[in-house]
Amino acid sequence: MNKFNKSKVEGDDDGIDTLLVRIEQIAPFPYDLIVPIIKVYPNSELIWAQEEPKNMGAWNYIKPRFQTLLNDLQKENQISQSNIRYVPIKLVYTLI
């Protein structure tokens, strides 16, 4: 089973504006699968989107795990920022 389903949303002529990555299995947290994707896009903004309200879905589980991963990558100078933010899935569809 693939844990990731990557979808590219094409932007202007300069390339990709958005890359959607669906995580199908979050426990155990797939650090080894997420890190390579983040390293390919080291200057990107990371957004967690879910259908459930912020306090009902996976956000409270994944946020500290992502934060640990991002802090480690930033300490190693592999990424420029170390934040991830929550956005309701309905809003994500309007952004892309």
Radius of gyration: 13 Å
Ends apart, CA distance between termini:
27 Å
Helix and strand pattern: EEHEHEH
Tell me the overall shape: globular
Uncertain regions spanning at least 5 consecutive residues: none
- Report on the biggest sheet: 2 strands, antiparallel
- Please state how the strands of the largest beta sheet are arranged side by side: 1-2
Overall number of structural domains: 1
Percent in helix: 25-40%
Contiguous helical run count: 3
Structural class: alpha+beta
Question: pLDDT average, as an integer?
Answer: 81
Number of E-type strands: 4
How big a fraction of the residues is strand?
A: 25-35%
What characteristics describe this protein?
single chain; two-stranded parallel sheet; 96 residues; alpha+beta; two-stranded antiparallel sheet
Describe the structure.
The protein has three helices and four strands, in the order ββαβαβα. The protein is of the alpha+beta class and 96 residues long. The strands form two sheets. Strands 1-2 form a two-stranded antiparallel sheet. The protein has a two-stranded parallel ribbon with strand order 3-4. It is globular and about 35 Å long. The N and C termini lie far apart (27 Å).
